[in-house]
Amino acid sequence: MIRQLVLALILILGVPATALAQGSEAAPTELEIDIGLDGWFDRSQPVPISATVRSELLFAGTLVLENGRSVVEIEVEVPAGGEKSYEVLVSPTMADGPVTARLLAIGVEQPAVVTRVRPREATDSILVGTFDAALVQLPATTAVGEVPVIDVPVDDLSVGLDPLDYLVAGPSFTATAELVAWVSAGGQLVTTARGVDSLELGLEEPLADDVSRFRMGNGAVLVVDNLASEWTRLLAPTTRGLQSSEPWSQPDALLARAASSSVPNALTSSNILYWLALYAIVAGPVNMIVLRRLKRRELAWFTVPALGIFTLILLAGFGGLKPQSSQFASATLIWADPNGSQMHSVVVGASEAGTTHELRVGPGSIIYPGAAGDSVGGMTASADRRVVSAAELVFDFELAGYGTAVVLSPIPRLPKLSIDNSGELPELLIENDSPLTLTGYGVVSGQVVSVGNGELPAGSSATVSLRNDYFGTADQVVAEATQAWDDSRWFEVHRPLAAATYQRAGEHYFFGFVEDFVVPVTIDGRLQEARGPAMVVVPLTAIDIGRADGRVIAVSPGGRVQGEHPWQWVEGEWAMLRFEVAGDRAIELVPSQNIAPGLAGIDAWDWGKSEYVEIAPGDLDRTRFVDDDGQVLLRIFQPGDEEFFGSQIYPNSYFLTWNRQA
Questions:
Q1: Cut 0.90: pTM above it
Q2: What is the DSSP string of 494-529?
Q3: What's the number of CA atoms in the CB half-sphere (13 Å) around residue 605?
């Protein structure tokens, strides 16, 4: 109460706002912005932004973060002579290009501080985080297979590890929950024997004799004798899956599209038909009756166009393209995380001009603004977003339009899976002990999709035989293989979900669709139902199905991944692809039909020598080019024939095959 009275007196009595906003030479206001980890961010994860405000005088106002059309506001209040830090998550698309931060005092248009920060994305490098720099020495080698190795100092193991490929930590580190989650999700921790002992995680036996390497979820712990010695041989090109740099093909934008497609009448222009009908009546019968009474029918040449212009003005001024009322819809990915299943939802809100809506999530969940460029209902999300906390977000609709928010929340159970390889074909056994009923389900393995029959209710079980039912790119085939041919609207709703899944999941995974899924979010103080489709994803280890397709994990310096899966391509000199194989059979590298043999150069990563070796299509030596986890790394590069290639490389130019039978 006292705080509100002080702020009211400041405004009423006219205490100079410039003192609050800008202070004086002796009492400045300072703003420090940190994005990601030392400026690095991971496109597959929400990006953390930390803002620290220092002021010699009482400061109350707003911190505005802006990048193009993406604008996020945070309420700020700092006591005299103090400092406060504010943490916010933003969409990865907001980290594309520089982020401008403006600190605005209440009632003052001129910013107190303006600063700009340019985030960095590791599309062409290996990021090695070093913790306890006094004990850790990065090897002298600055590149691995022409991929630069960049040292990223890490001061805190509890935040911001997502962008890293490797973390090198001295023996005195503490195994935080965030560190364990990062390794389990695919990170590589390099430490000493004492460091492993401090983890106390019951790791498995070493996987190799020369280097002590332990599995931990999807990641690994690598043990060396001396962190100050040369250990470059442990480093390999990253296994980070790159996503398209195009905002419209990002997972959040795809989910927003699926949400709006699921309720075509709720989140589309509903008033325009009313205005068109009114125009037809006025410009037609009414106009002609009036002109006939005036005996001036020739004026129709002027009145009809004038009425058309007047209708357009009404449409713009009174919101003929706006929704009739505030409505919300959602689309959700539900995937199995090594440390617990998680829901990634995009909630789309449509509202009239001059309205405000407060969205709040419960304990254990996080909400943050979606990208302002998300396409919703054929329009662009444009609502102002005000971040109150990690659990609360406010949409301000100055104009009629749409807003998007991302909700991350836990879910208790997902189906249990097991693979039976005893028969002629592998079979996936599914026990659906989750509370979800799956209306369409199956298995994706590269570009091969096998589907089950009918739906899979909660509490039931089923078997899917990996019999190569469908062949093609996963997002298209997943939708087609379930119900798309019989229901065009199913395809419109579920293909964006499948495309977003491709960006997130590995090469092999179980999938299932859930209809009419409700995201738990409180809107304007009451629990409303933001309904929409959902897709369950449970990653699988390499399936012995006989084929593996590559995923782009790195590109040449300055290169970019373009387009939306399946129509992706790489602009650059080379593209690094990761393949996942199974079994111990002989492997063959096969060119796809859309590429002519011999026109592209191919390098394979030799895991023993830690270098690339040029190869040709045909048999691939498992002892050299397949690691203990079944990974194969290939680099497709420009052969110099730019008349044929231009500057584009297609990820699916090659695939690996092997014979499953002995």
A1: no
A2: HHHHHHHHHHHS-SEEEEEEEEEEEEEEEETTEEEE
A3: 24
